Amino acid sequence: MTTSPPVAGSATTDSATSATSATTLTRYLDVDGTRFAYRELGPRAGVPLVLLHHFTATIDDWDPRVLDGIAAERHVIYVDNRGVGGTRGRVPRSVDAMATDALGFIRGLGLTEVDLLGFSLGGFVAQVIASREPRLVRRLVLAGTGPSGFDGVGQFNRRLLTDTAHGMVKLTDPKPFLFFTRTSNGRAAAVDYMERLAERSSDRVARTSLGAAVRQLAAIARWGASAPMDLSRIQQPTLVANGEDDRMLATRGSFELAHRIPDARLVIYPDAGHGGVFQHHGRFVPEVLRFLG
């Protein structure tokens, strides 16, 4: 395992700690022949929060208000999994394999205890990690996600496939359609969100390729079709959050997670969809900080 310096130059611990999501440098970590791209924010103290992202997303796709808000008090690490963004290799075709990669990255950093925040597909991965490595994960945040083998999880409706394909062919982002409600509030939130994602103007990673997206879809479908995971094995305190009208991963899956994980609490945001935690970042960030505190 080797750690490579940021491609844009070197940075002291102080400068890295004071950076924002728009300025923090991309770093690289070699683990068993795979070079993982990641970024860090916030004070380098306490239990770090590792973020795992959604279908087709890269480290450029985390909402800056969520990143900077949490990093005001916590050490935040966010990473591109294998075959996505700045990380080399081929995307695994199963969530279990993605979890193995994420665990390799976490251990490659020398971390022995972490908090996890998994959004959407990243929430699937976070569930596996928390179940597989209970001593590693202290607390768990599951946003816009659902349990394996649950109706409406991993089942692709026409709108999801059409909007995703349209975005990749036209080089436009389908998230404004997929993540937000079509109400006036939802449309305005979508515009604000996309403007925030553009705040980082340099040192960005590559967009997810069509081939990588297809392999992710295979992993998501397998997760939805698999036998339900025994969520009683997740003993960590867990915060489950979603919008009330999630058309990508049915909101009822969040209710199911909160019901089946023994020590879980549920937060549902009004007039919000799959990206409810981004639309309501002003509520979500303090909620996460209180929960992790």
UniProtKB/TrEMBL annotation:
Entries under InterPro entries matching the protein: AB_hydrolase (IPR050471), AB_hydrolase_1 (IPR000073), AB_hydrolase_fold (IPR029058)
Transmembrane parts of this sequence: none
GO MF term set: hydrolase activity
UniProt entry tagged with the keyword Aminoacyl-tRNA synthetase: no
Keywords, alphabetical: Hydrolase
Domain of life: Bacteria
Extent of the signal sequence: none
Gene3D superfamilies: alpha/beta hydrolase (3.40.50.1820)
Domain AB hydrolase-1, residue spans: 48-280
Protein name listed in UniProt: Alpha/beta hydrolase
Organism from which the protein derives: Nocardioides humilatus
